Structures are given as C-alpha cells and as structure tokens.
C-alpha cells in the first residue's frame, strides 16, 4: 500500500514537471499553425485554373488536369505597369522638310484612283499608301473606294467612315485630292483598271504605272493592299505618318460613340487594358494549331480547313514551338497577371466570334472579372447605327483600344500592327505583343512550376515586347507597325543612349547595313510578322524572326486572306 502511494506521488511529481514542457510545445504548435494559416492563400486570394485547360473538354478530362494556383494580385513588378520607360523623351515627328507643295508638282490630266480590299485596318494601310503613290506619280488622287464585296460585307463608303473633307484639306499641301473624277465632253472621265505588284517601290511605280497614267490620264489600281514598298525615302515615310496619324480621322458619329465608350471605361477605373482577341474558328483552323479540344476540335477545325484547297495539313506541335499559334484567352490572362496586372484591373475586349464561346473565355474572366466589350458598356439602341456595318463597329473598337492605357494582342493582324505603330507615335503607350515562341515552352511546363518561377519567366521573356522605345530596330517589321522614321528623341535620350554599350545579334550582314539606334533586344522579332520584307536581300537576316505560314503565301482565295489579315 505504501509502495503504491509512493509510486502515485512520483507520477504526479513527474507530471507536474512535464506539464510546462507539454504546454510550451502545444503553444508553439498553435503559433506555428496560426502563422501557416495566415501565410497560406485563402480561397478569396487566389484563382485556381487547370494547368492545361482546353476548349470544350469533357468534365472527366478536367478532373484529371492538374490545378494551377494564380494569385489575384499582380504582385511585384520591375516596371511601372501603366507606362513605358523613358517614353517622355520620344515623340512623333512627321513634318515635311524638303517637300515641294502639291500645286508645284501635280501634273494636269493625271488622276490616280485605288480600290482597297479587306477589313477596316487593311483598307487603312491601302489608303495611306495610295496618298504616297499619288505623290510619287505627281498625280491627283481620287478619294479611295472602300471594299464593299469582301468577306466583311460592309457597304460603307469612304465618307461614312472617315472625315473626307478633313482628309482632303489636311493633305492639300502634299497631294491634290478630289472626291470623284472630273467630267470631260459631258461625260465623267473613265479610269483604266490595273493591278500593281505587292511592295512596289518608287522605281516600280515610275516604270510600270506612270507610262499607263500618261497615256490613259486616269488609272484605278485594284485590290490596293501592301502595294507599296516597306522601305522608302524619308520624306515619303513621313508622308505615310501624316496620312495615317493625322489625316485619317473617323466621322463625327463614330468619334462621338467611341469617346462615349472610352468615358464609360474610365468611369469604371482610372486605368484599363484593351485586348484585341483573334480567336475565331476560321483563324484557328488556318493556324493548324492544337488548342486542346481533342477529337471534337480536330473535326470542327478540320472541316473549316477543307474549304480552302490551298491549305495543307500542318504539324501542330511544330507550329506552336515556332510561335505561330495565337495565345488562348487563358494564356493571355496568365501572361497579364504575371506582368503585374491584378484581378481588379478592367479589361475591354475587342473580338469577333470566339471559338468555344463562354467556355473558352471562362478562364480569362476568372482571372479578370471586370470584363467589358461594346455590348456590355453600350445599349443596343446606342450601337444600332453602327451594328450593321462591320467597319464602323471595328472603328469603335479601334478608338477604345487606341485610348487604352495598355493595349495587348494575341495576334499580329493589321489592327494589332497599326495600333502598335500609332501608340509608338503618340507617346509609346504600353503595347504588349506576346513572345509566343518563348511563352509556348513556359505554358507547356507550368504545371511543374511555382507561380513565382512562372511569373518571373514571363517577365523575362516579355522584355522587348512591351512597346517601349527602341525595342525594335529601325527598318525591322512593317513600317505601319514600326514607324521609326517618324519617331524623334530629345537630347536626354540621345545622351543616355550614347553611354550604353552596344549589343548586337549574330552580326549577319545585310545589303542596306541597317544598324540599331539603341541597344538590341535578343527576342525583338520573335513575334511573327504578317508581311515579309520587301528587300529580298535581307532574306538571310532572320536570326531572330519567325514567319507565319500565311506571311509569304500568294493567296489564291481572297476571302481567306481577308479573314486572316485584319
């Protein structure tokens, strides 16, 4: 009995000695769990996406797909997300220096007309180049005819989209422009129709078109798109800029409605992103890429491809490796988040029919819930005067995208190119072009990466693709996309540039020996160009470039070209 009491006393004593230790361990564990709960992202602080989400996937497939954690905040960024570095030191400059006035060089009885082709932005490039062509030929330009029979099926004429009187008066010192051919002998002068080769330079126009113009007095150049060389004399390039950035102004009704849309975006937020999203079935079918929709996608896009005999079956994996596939809406969203744009950012989306509909857009909307378009910020009644005309609707999107704080595109069509050039000219506003070749590998392996590693890699790969000054060498890309002749820099930028070490690529010589005015960027041209360079001597200077299949095709089907280009 005594032994049991002593044993019981000994156990109580041991427990009293151990109690503080146990309490300390319990308290430490409680603190540890509290810290972990604070540090761990709550469901409200993150978006969970399937790391390889697809179009029209079956639910069983989605369940097996790994989940990818994406923070709702933009996180840390090594750049200001709403402005371009050093942009204040660069400005557009397109005033004429040595141009004689139009009245001094325009020859009598020499009239040039052009008929554009394609959608709004493809026609815009044709109009711009037509003014320069008229100047080269010392001819009077007749107000261009817009394409009313293309895939886009818009019956609008020039004066219903652009302010024709402003166009004529603004360019009066450069080129004489009239609204229609004059009458002679009681009849309107008849124009001789012909075509001009693509990328025709000054000598080409003088040799091919001028003799016919002198003989016939009036010539109309049909299907006038990309019919003028990319590289021209400086004064002609500056004239291109005066036309594109100053003379081509939308009509008052379009401008008023466009400003109303911009104002409503500004009412939602101080800043906004505009996304030009090309993800239509026809576009995807032509790309030949695999977007993860399985057999259903292959059948649907394959049926579309068979409509054009000129298309051949391509290797989807190779196309994506080469950066030839448009980013999916989800991939655009992930890129933007990695670049520092949080879920509170408002996005205006300019797009046509999206393949897969709402299911395809769902990941982008999950990442950026403040998702807007013309149809969500304007009433049906407000859009009614424009809704039956594709070019007028495209003009509204053009205005909202142009006025955005940041413009991003998943493609390299005409609208993306023109806006990229325009935003450079008017202050280098951030313009994000995906480095598709590098991002492809990243998207493919993202299920094995932490968000921090993924985001850091995106920011690294996107250097040189953000619309900052001197990203692209003068002479590279199409002039409408990179109007380097019309971009001037102040003395501060010149001093800073002269102090930087020069860095060149593979030292591949070119005939014209064009050099960069600033530090080179390794990946500057990896985003595919829609147009090959007009100077064939530069064909081998492709160390940093990839070309989309339809860049160099001589299209036999004009509808296909129109679908893809704008």
Automatic annotation (TrEMBL):
- Region described as Disordered: spans on this chain: 503-545
Query: Is-annotated flag, keyword Transferase?
Result: yes
Query: Which residue ranges run through the membrane?
Result: none
State any single GO MF term.
glycosyltransferase activity
Ranges of biased composition (kind: Acidic residues): 519-542
Glycoprotein in keyword set: no
Note the superkingdom of the native organism. Eukaryota
Q: Name one Pfam family in it.
A: O-FucT
UniProt keywords (A-Z) are:
Carbohydrate metabolism, Fucose metabolism, Glycosyltransferase, Transferase
Task: Output the GO biological process annotations, alphabetical, semicolon-separated.
Answer: fucose metabolic process
Write out the similarity annotation. Belongs to the glycosyltransferase GT106 family.
Protein's recorded name: O-fucosyltransferase family protein
């Amino acid at each position: 009995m005594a032994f049991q009491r002593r044993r019981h006393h000994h156990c109580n004593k041991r427990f009293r000695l151990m109690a503080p230790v146990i309490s300390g361990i319990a308290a430490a564990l409680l603190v540890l769990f509290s810290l972990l709960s604070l540090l761990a992202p709550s469901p409200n602080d993150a978006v969970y996406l399937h790391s390889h989400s697809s179009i029209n996937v079956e639910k069983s497939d989605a369940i097996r797909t790994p989940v990818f954690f994406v923070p709702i905040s933009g996180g840390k960024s090594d750049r200001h997300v709403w402005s371009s570095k050093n942009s204040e030191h660069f400005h557009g400059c397109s005033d004429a220096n040595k141009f004689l006035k139009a009245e001094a060089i325009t020859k009598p009885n020499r009239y040039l007309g052009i008929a554009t082709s394609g959608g709004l932005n493809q026609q815009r490039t044709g109009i711009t180049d037509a003014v320069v062509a008229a100047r080269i030929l010392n001819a009077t330009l007749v107000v261009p005819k817009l394409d009313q029979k293309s895939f886009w099926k818009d019956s609008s004429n020039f004066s219903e989209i652009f302010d024709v009187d402003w166009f004529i008066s603004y360019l009066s010192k450069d080129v004489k422009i009239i609204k229609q051919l004059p009458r002679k002998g009681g009849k309107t002068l008849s124009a001789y129709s012909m075509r001009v080769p693509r990328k025709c330079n000054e000598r080409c126009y003088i040799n091919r078109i001028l003799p016919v113009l002198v003989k016939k007095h009036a010539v109309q150049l049909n299907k006038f798109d990309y019919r003028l060389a990319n590289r021209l004399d400086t004064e002609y390039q500056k004239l291109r800029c005066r036309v594109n950035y100053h003379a081509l102004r939308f009509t008052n009704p379009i401008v008023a409605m466009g400003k109303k849309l911009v104002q409503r975006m500004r009412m939602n937020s101080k800043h906004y992103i505009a996304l030009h999203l090309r993800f239509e079935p026809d576009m995807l079918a032509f790309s030949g890429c695999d977007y993860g929709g399985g057999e259903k996608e292959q059948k649907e896009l394959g049926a579309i491809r068979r409509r054009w005999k000129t298309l051949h079956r391509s290797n989807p994996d190779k196309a994506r490796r080469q950066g030839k596939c448009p980013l999916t809406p989800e991939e655009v969203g992930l890129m933007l988040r990695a670049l520092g744009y949080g879920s509170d950012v408002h996005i205006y989306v300019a797009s046509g029919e999206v393949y897969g509909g709402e299911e395809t857009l769902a990941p982008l909307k999950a990442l950026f819930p403040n998702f807007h378009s013309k149809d969500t910020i304007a009433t049906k009644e407000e859009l009614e005067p424009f809704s039956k005309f594709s070019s007028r609707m495209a003009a509204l999107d053009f205005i909202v995208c142009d006025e955005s704080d940041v413009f991003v595109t998943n493609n390299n069509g005409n609208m993306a190119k023109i806006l990229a050039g325009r935003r450079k000219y008017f202050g280098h506003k951030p313009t994000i072009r995906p480095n598709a070749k590098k991002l492809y590998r990243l998207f493919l392996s993202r299920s094995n990466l932490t968000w921090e590693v993924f985001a850091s890699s995106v920011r690294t790969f996107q250097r040189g693709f953000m619309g900052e000054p001197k990203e692209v060498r003068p002479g590279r890309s199409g002039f409408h996309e990179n109007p380097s002749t019309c971009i001037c820099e102040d003395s501060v930028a010149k001093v800073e540039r002269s102090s930087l070490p020069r860095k060149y690529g593979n030292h591949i010589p070119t005939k014209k020996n064009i050099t960069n005015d600033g530090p080179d960027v390794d990946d500057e041209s990896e985003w595919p160009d829609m147009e090959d360079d007009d100077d064939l001597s530069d064909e081998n200077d492709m160390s940093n470039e990839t070309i989309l299949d339809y860049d160099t095709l001589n299209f036999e089907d004009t509808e296909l070209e129109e679908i893809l280009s704008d």
